[in-house]
Structures are given as C-alpha cells and as structure tokens.
Amino acid sequence: MQEQAERGAFEFYGAWREYAPIAFTNLLLTIVTLGIYNFWGRTRTRQYLWSRTRFIDDRLEWTGTGRELLLGYIVVVVLVFVPVAGLNLLVGALAMRGTPEGAAAAGLLFFGLYLFLFLLGGVAIFRALRYRLSRTYWHGIRGGSDDQGFRYGLSYLWRMMLGSAAFGLLVPWALVTLWNERWNAMSFGPYPFRSGASSDGLMRRYLLFYLLPVALVIGGIVAVALSLWFGVTPQTAPGPVAPPLFLIVGFFVFYLLFLALFGLISLSFYAAYFRQAIGALTLGHLEFEFTARTKDWLKLMLGTVALVVCTLGIGSIFIGYRNWAFFIRHLRAYGTLDLEQFTQSDTRAPGQGEGLFDSLDMGAF
Amino acid sequence: METRVWHYDGRSGERRMPVLVPSADERRFTLQGDGADPGPYAFADLEPHGTSHHERAFGLKGRPGWRITFLEFPPSEIAVQLPKPARYGAWIDRFGLWRSAGVLAILAVLVVAFTLKLPPLLARLVPQSVEQRMGRLIVGNLGTYACASPQGDAALKALGARLRQDGDVTIRVVHAPMINAVAFPGGQVVLFDGLIQNAKSPDEVAGVLAHELGHVAHRDGMEALIRQYGLQLLLGGFDGNVSGYGNALLNARYSRKAEAGADGYAIGRLQAANISPLPTAALFARLAEQDAQPGNAAVMMTYLSSHPLSTAREQAFRASAKPGAAYKPALSPEQWQALRAMCGDSPATAP
C-alpha cells in the first residue's frame, strides 16, 4: 500500500549530458544507414528516457525493440501505402479520360480514399498509444488494450468530420470525447484507465482562438476604412510616396502580431485541453494531474526554437528529450496503488510497432 | 556473502528481495526467501535489460515482466555468467561503433550511387513499343504547331537519310521561334523553326539533328523522364501527364556525359555522311557569343540552357574536321530553301 504526497509521484532525473552520447550516435548511425537505424535509435532514446523516469518507488522500463518498429513500418507500407498509391494512379487515369462518368468515378474514389486515410489516422493514434503502453513496464507489469483500434478509427472519422462541419465549433468536443474513448479502452496491469473529461471549460479559450481571425479581419477593415475616411483627404498634398511604404510596414507588423497572438491563443487552448484531459484520467485509485500552463508551454516552445536555431538544426536531436522531460515534470499522480492486487496485464501485446503512426507522421498523445 | 536482488515475477507488481544462490555447476541459480518462486533458473536464459553497464537489470526469456536487479556489483562467479547489455544493437555491438559506422557509410555511398545509376538502367528496360507510344502521345500534343510542305518534308527525309537515321525515327519541324531541338522518347525528333532560320547553312542543322539522333540512340529522353518522374512514370501508364512530360523534356538538362555521348555520335554521323563539322562548331560559337549580348539572351537561352556549351565541345567538332576533305553540303540549295520555307515566311526569328 502506497500513499502519495502531493508532489513527487513522477520524477524525471535524466541529464542531457548523459543523453548526448545516445543522441549523437543515433544521428551518426541513422545517417550511415540512410535512415534505417532510426527505428533502433528511437528505441534507445526511449529506453533512456523511461529508465530515468521514476514513478513512486521504481523506474519505468521501455521494452520495445527497433526490430518491431521496423516491422510495423514495413507492414504499413505493404498493406496500406502501396495499395493507396495504386488507387491514386487509378484516380488519375479515370480523371484523364475526360468523360463525365470517368470524372465522377474519380471524384468518388478520391473522396473514399480521403475518408479512408482520415480513418487510418485515427487508428494510428489509437494503436500508437496501445503499443507504447504495452511496452512500458513498471514493477514488472505492463499496460495495453484488447481493442484493435478500428472502431476508434470510425469514431475519429465521424467526430472530427462533425466537429469541423459545424464551422469548427465542435472541435473541442471532438478532441475531448476522442481522448475519453481512447483512454477508456486502455489499461495498465489489472486496472482500466477511466477518463471522463468534458469540453465545458475549454469553449472560452477555443472561441478566442476561433474568433481572433474574424475579429482581426473586421478590425482591419474598420481601420482601413477609418484611415481612408479621415486620412486620405488631407494627405493628398504631401505626395503619393509616403502611404505605400507606411502601408507595407504596417501590414507586416500587423501580420507578425497576428501570428504571435494566434500562436499564443492556440497554445493556451492546447494547455487547457491537456490539463483538463489528463486531470480527468484515473487508473484504479490513482488520479492524474497535468500542471503545465500556457506560460510553461510557451517556455518549452521558445526554448526548443532557440535550441534548434542556435545549433543550426543539430539541437533538434534533443527535442524528444525536452518534450519528455517537460511532460513528466508537469505530471502528478495522487491516490493509492495496492501492489498486491497490481497483477500482470492480460491484454494481448501487439506484435509490431507503431508503423501506421510513424508513416502518417503524427505526434504523441 | 549472499547476493540480494530486487525481483519482480511478472505476475504481480510486488517487489521481493530474495537471495540469489548459484548452483554447484554455476549454470543455474535459485531465488530464495521473501516469497519468491525459487526456480531454478538458467543464467543462459537471462536477458540484459539495463540501459548502461551501471544498471544490472535482467529479464528472463519467455517471462515478460520477470526481472532481477543487482543492487551492487555481483560477485565475480555470478558476474561472468551474466549476459552483456546491448548498446547500439546486436550487429553494431559485435563489430564496434566506429568500424560499423565506417562499413555502413561505404555501403550507403554504394546504395546512393546505384540509385543514381538506376534511371539509365531502367530506361533500357522500357520496351521499345511502350516508348514509341509515349513519344507519339507527347509529339501529338505539339500537333497544332507542326509545319509541313511536300518539298520541306522531302528535304527533311533526305537529310535524315544522309545521317543514316533508322526507320524508327520521325523528324518534325514545329513553328516556334526558340533555337532548339528536342529528342522525345520513341525516336520523335523535333526541330524548332527558330533553329533553322538562325542557321547559316544546312550543315549546321545537320550537326544539331545528328546530336539529337545521338540522344535517341542512347535513349537519353527516357532516362531524363525516369529521373524526374521515377516510379510514377513506370507505374502510372504514360497517358496521365503527357504535356508535363513534354515540358520536362523541353527543359531537360542532360548530364555532361549524355551530351558528350550525343556529340560523339553526331561527329561520327557527320563524318560518315561526309558533312563538314565546322559549321556546327561555328554555330556553337555563335550561340555562345550571341548569348553574351543582353538583347538576345531570351532567344538564345533555351538552347544554351538545355545544352550546356563549352569551348571543349566546340573544339571537339572543330578537331574532327579532316583537312583537305571534300565535304559535300548536307542539302542542295533547293532543299535548304524548302526546309527554311516550311513554316511559311512569318518572321520566326525576329532579331
């Protein structure tokens, strides 16, 4: 029986100097193998990060292998990408035929293909999470899921479609319900994860994010109209040279401001989403919390940009390390875990890695 | 001294701290005390699970989650039985990091070199019939610009015959001011009217035509397309992107080697046909010179950019001339007139 104090259930005690030899040899070997070593390199990175992550009284352990990542990748290329490429060529051939039937068939096929790839994206997110849990051991116990993720793929498809269809206003709802669905299918040891997040508190930030461009466009039009109304008549005298330069600089500043503000607002939505989603997650009698606020995310992002720019790109090999450290340092757990009842997971461990996820190039969580 | 280990059995999350006791033959061990399943277990079944040599954690083959972790360095009779932790991966650990990286780097260079060599190899594999169909499709696209007159066609035919073109080559003239000539796949050679109008003698046209016939013979056009479009071209059927392929070839930059090969071919053909190579050399020199004048740049660019000139190339043609040889003009004056008049007398070359 373990009682956890407010802080310290999770701790990351890695050091970048300790990780650097791993990162640089991964880079070297990835280059000389024309990218193939990447699968083994990622495995080594995770082994390191997991082994430097303590939960309560013991470290996590990553048991995935490079071989299964490679296998997953090959499976996806053969089963998904080759057929999709073939269908794509068929679409092209149909469209080139020039007949209305051909064009209709091509359009239909293209739409079907698009839906299929979207669905695969959902399946990929699910299966990557499942793979990661099934390869994560703590106290000799692992996680996993009995679900294959195809139902989740369907759910992902219709929820995201519906979310975007309502002028994008239901996107927070789609994100949160999908988070719940995904985690409710996962387990660790004998305990299922339970997630009951709601999108209630998110709407305010999302509306800000959503309305900013609209507000700025209206504001811009009003500003231009006002300047025309008041500005043009007296300014015809000084000559036509001044206004264009002024306008261009003004527009540029306006654009930069817009980008910064938009980035900040989307970051604040993202931060709130993560806090809410992880905060609603439980495992047995454990509850989780994620403490990163917008400010923390901003620091992470600016730090990463500075790292990459100042090292002319080489620093990007540390991005995964930074993200993991950030994630663990802001993760909290409360409650109790009964080790006597904490028995091995009886979920079926997937045979291969996150190939779908890799090849669709999607981020974690 | 007894050796205590942290132990998880992979069934429950409870940590036990049994004593690890080696058997008499030191091949096996038992875990004694603290409620652990005593075993025995074989040292040979242990799998390293630490990420560095500081961490002495081991799993057991066929028992996911089963772990023992030595809290301090184990006594030597146990240590020698323990498998070494993997570091970079089994193969690389065996040969060492630097040696593996060296060997892999050499392999990588070979693979890249082979991939670059692939287009000419693949071009040779495309069946002639497919290539011809493709060439017809592309040139058919130029249809509206094609020039034709009975005398002009006869002159073209005569020129082709002197250069000993094979039966599979079709030569056409199109109405366009650019000083250019292109060899499309399937033996479809297109001469731009700008080239003919700019030429000072039929021998110059013969030289350029022979050069393009060299590209045809070496299948350089197919190679250029495979280079640019790769798998899409080979898998997609050729009808998909006809105008795209045509454009790609118009702007194709062949390798220096392909150009030198076509030049060599052209020199050989001119020699066999008893046509002087000197006008062709002069044409190259003139094009380079005119290009240096800003006003003409736009017109000249096309030919120059797709056929990177060098004095070496000009000299190759010049050097192939045999002193005292009795060269015959490529076309008779009447034939030459007919060829020049093929696209009507609209001023194709304005300057």
Automatic annotation (TrEMBL), chain A:
Keyword Transmembrane in record: yes
Highest taxon, organism lineage: Bacteria
Transmembrane segments: 20-40, 69-91, 103-126, 156-179, 207-232, 244-273, 300-321
Pfam families the record matches: DUF898 (PF05987)
Transmembrane listed as a keyword: yes
UniProt cross-references to InterPro entries, sorted A to Z: DUF898 (IPR010295)
This protein's UniProt keywords: Membrane, Transmembrane, Transmembrane helix
The protein's name in its UniProt record: Uncharacterized membrane protein YjgN (DUF898 family)
Organism per entry: Sphingomonas trueperi
UniProtKB/TrEMBL annotation, chain B:
Keywords carried by this UniProt record: Hydrolase, Membrane, Metal-binding, Metalloprotease, Protease, Transmembrane, Transmembrane helix, Zinc
Similarity-based family: Belongs to the peptidase M48 family.
GO biological process: one example: proteolysis involved in protein catabolic process
Gene3D superfamilies on file: Metalloproteases ('zincins'), catalytic domain
Record's protein name: Zn-dependent protease with chaperone function
Cofactor binding note: Binds 1 zinc ion per subunit.
GO cellular component: membrane
Cofactor: Zn(2+)
Source organism superkingdom: Bacteria
InterPro entries: Mito/Outer_Membr_Metalloprot, Peptidase_M48
Species name: Sphingomonas trueperi
A molecular function (GO) term: metalloendopeptidase activity
Transmembrane segments: 97-116
PANTHER family linked to this entry: METALLOENDOPEPTIDASE OMA1, METALLOENDOPEPTIDASE OMA1, MITOCHONDRIAL
Domain Peptidase M48 per the UniProt entry, residue ranges: 169-318
A Pfam family of this chain: Peptidase_M48
